[in-house]
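> @MW can you paste both from yesterday?
MW: sure, first one:
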Amino acid sequence: MLNTPPGYDPAGYAERYGTGLPNALPVPSVRASLGARFVAYLLDILFILGFTALLTLAITVLGVLTFGLGWTLFAILPASGILYSAVTVGGAAQSTWGMRMMGLRVVSPASGLRVDFITAAIHALLFYVAISTFLLWFVDILFGLMRSDRRLGHDVLVGLAVVRV
């Protein structure tokens, strides 16, 4: 860097002045391990089960109150995992509850910024499509094992990275 004043520290600027911007660490240096992602997914299965149970109860009560009309909302139950991921990953914490417990978050690798709701939903949809068949799941995992940054196939397609906090 040319013509920088003495004592200039670009990496600590955001932290020192409270700008809220992420630290200037490249994504590969803080990448998440595939093992931590797997354990986070196992935890998320439990949270999705609870979320689906609460959603089922709410739709049932709404259906009784609307004389059966609200029961048409049962059609959204298969997408409860995608909805859970979109709301949590697209939220302020940038991670599902299982990811939070494992110390992971989802970021855009270029900027390190938050993921919006739609991108998080597409990321979750591609994950569930990949996990639905053994061949796609195997290719997705193999893709992550072959890359140095451990990004899986659906991460690369959407342009996201899962990193350690």
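MW: second:
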Amino acid sequence: MTATDPALTALAQGWCALSLLHGRIEAHIERALQAKHDLSVREYSLLDVLSRQHDGTGGHLQMKQVADAVVLSQSATTRLVTRLEDRGLLARYLCLTDRRGIYTNVTEAGLKLLGEARPTNESALREAMDQAERKPELAPLVRALETLGAPA
């Protein structure tokens, strides 16, 4: 394979288009969440992931699992948790069966804010996807994404 190999070039172009689509969507959602709810995309994602925890087996996420879910390093996730905890949106507590384990729960205030922000997130996502679909280089990716959630 050489640097001018057509397959490599097509792969690189596809990656650039995917990166562009992701950046546009994230920026659009970020502006909407910041303007209406004073939340970043990462903060919203963290609240959303943590709100889906449950008390059953495997229901509480360890910090590494949370970091993986929001696509951040463990240290960046810890800083994000601390910021949201300082705002009263999250609370940490020790695991009852393993005193070394620390879990994080969304507070009532965090659940309320998440509930208010969810329609904004979904609307901004739809708007960003609609805008991207009008760009010929992004339209195939938008169509591919929309088929991911469609029933088989």
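> thanks! The chain has a mean pLDDT of 90.
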